[in-house]
Amino acid sequence: MTFELWLFAIKRLAQTQDAAITIFNQLCQAEKDRLEEEYNRIYG
User: Fold this and answer.
1) Which one of 2, 9, 20, 37 has the fewest beta carbons within 10 angstroms of its own beta carbon?
2) What is the rounded CA–CA span in Å between residue 26 and residue 43?
3) Secondary structure (DSSP) of 1-40
4) Average pLDDT, the chain
């Protein structure tokens, strides 16, 4: 993988993460708690 391709991929990943964090922060606390419980059940 070239450096340029790697850099592009990392940039896209960071933009996706920023968008996900923005959306998550706008959820109500009950939905955040539900998502955290689901995450812990799957990956915990």
Assistant:
1) 2
2) 23
3) --HHHHHHHHHHHHHHHHHHHHHHHTS-HHHHHHHHHHHH
4) 95
